[in-house]
Amino acid sequence: MTRVLVFNEPDVFQIMDVHEDPAAIITAVNSGNWMKYLPAERGPLYASQQDELVIITHYANPSPIVRPKVSRREMQVLQMLAEGLTASQIALQMGVKPRTVRGYVARLKARLGAQTGQQLLARAVALGLLKLNIQQ
Q1: Which has the higher per-residue pLDDT, 121 or 52?
Q2: Most buried of the four, 1, 18, 114, 134, by CB within 10 Å?
Q3: 3-state DSSP call for residue 18?
C-alpha cells in the first residue's frame, strides 16, 4: 500500500492509498499514464517520492527544491498548525502572545509563497519541511 498526496491546486490536496509500488506509480504518472490512479485529473501530472509518500503535482520541477530557511520557533508553529491548533492555543503552549504567533505565520506564508493557512501547510509538505503523520 502506498500513500499518495495529490495537489489538485496550490492550496488543495487529497490523500489516497494505492495498492501498488511507489516506483510503479511514479513511472506511470511521469510517462503520462495517470488515468489509472486519477481518472478525473487533467494533465500533465508529475510524481516524485518523499520518504514513503508519493507526491503528484501539476508542475514539473527538474531542479532540486530549495527549502527556505525556517527558524526553530517558526518550525514549532508550523507543526502545531498542522496539528490543528489556533494561534491562541499555540501562543499558550509557547509562552508568547497570539500576536507573536501571527507574526511567525505571516513570515512563513511570505517565505513559502502561501496566502492561506491551508496553502502554507500544503507547501510545507511539498517542500519537505513538514511530514504528514496520517492515522488510518
Answers
A1: 121
A2: 114
A3: strand
Q: State pTM to two decimals.
A: 0.58
What number of other Cβ atoms are within 10 A of residue 7's Cβ?
19
Across residues 105-116, what is the average pLDDT? 91
CA-based torsion, 8, 13, 18, 20: positive or negative = positive
Region class of 95: left (phi > 0), else alpha (psi between -120 and 50), else beta: left
Strands in the chain per DSSP E: 2-9, 12-18, 46-50, 53-57
Beta bridge partners of 41: none
Helix 72-82 and helix 87-94, axial crossing angle in degrees, nearest 10 = 130
For the chain, the structural domain boundaries read: 2-57, 72-126
- The alpha helices in 21-97, defined as continuous H runs, are 22-30, 72-82, 87-94
The pLDDT tens digits of the residues spanning 17-72 come to 889 999 999 999 999 988 888 888 887 888 888 777 888 888 776 444 567 889 99
User: What residues pair up with 17 in beta bridges, in sequence order?
Assistant: 3
Q: Report strand pairing: 2-9 vs 53-57.
A: parallel
- The predicted pLDDT at position 136 comes to 46
